Amino acid sequence: xxxxxxxxxxxxxxxxxxxxxxxxxxxxxxxxxxxxxxxxxxxxxxxxxxxxxxxxxxxxxxxxxxxxxxxxxxxxxxxxxxxxxxxxxxxxxxxxxxxxxxxxxxxxxxxxxxxxxxxxxxxxxxxxxxxxxxxxxxxxxxxxxxxxxxxxxxxxxxxxxxxxxxxxxxxxxxxxxxxxxxxxxxxxxxxxxxxxxxxxxxxxxxxxxxxxxxxxxxxxxxxxxxxxxxxxxxxxxxxxxxxxxxxxxxxxxxxxxxxxxxxxxxxxxxxxxxxxxxxxxxxxxxxxxxxxxxxxxxxxxxxxxxxxxxxxxxxxxxxxxxxxxxxxxxxxxxxxxxxxxxxxxxxxxxx
Length: 351
Fold this sequence. Notes:
351 residues; alpha+beta; 6-stranded mixed sheet; 4-stranded mixed sheet; 9 helices; 18 strands; globular
């Protein structure tokens, strides 16, 4: 049975035998598979890292971050907002859900997710040397029933028998405290690429009880990337007099560069990027040179991070506990690698 984390930004496949858990690597030795699908003119569908690279070259036919939209009605506010921000085209599906239009073809979001799951299955079969059909897939704790059904559908389309849909915080608690020696009450603070979840769990031996959970399936690292990208667009307009607000291709390139800058700022005080030939001004290709200091990034990020703590308060209130009554806080999700997130979590929980 494969264990699959189908993430907004990246996905992972693992296998557990009697002795250990192995995260399975692709042909290049990578553990992470970008949750990106690209549809080049050649007709060959690219998935993973090769597709992510296409966001720079063919943004309108490269699909990413659909986990935030899966299982949502097309007319919902979240989808309306995403349709304005994403460089690829969203349209209403036959049952009122969200579909993606690329190269005169329409794909449902479970179909897009199935391309990623099929790639993960291929990685697993190549690594283990045998067919793999059964899987457990993790989802955010506050995914609704439609979102869970859509995730199961994606697995089925990918040829997987989805034995169980497991909440991501429960998966984290299993990894951290399975067969814990003493009873513990923990919070799982899960800040991923597209979603935020907080869960309060009680661990006792091999029993895990979910006491309370809360979250926002439209709050994550993508929003921090967008805040940086908007700052970059503003700087580009100041430098070159070109407004990228109505250029999905140009803004898509900024978003990719913004993610790189964000990751750099997890380890250094400033980050610089040069984006070549970002637009045409007066008939000439122009570049963007951009520098962001850690303090500037914190000013952009802090309001978004602060939103997570109102949700934490909701979960603590549901569980009828205060932060001082917790034994541990688990940090889960790529966004918790950001030093500012860790600082603010420490301030809120007092540990």
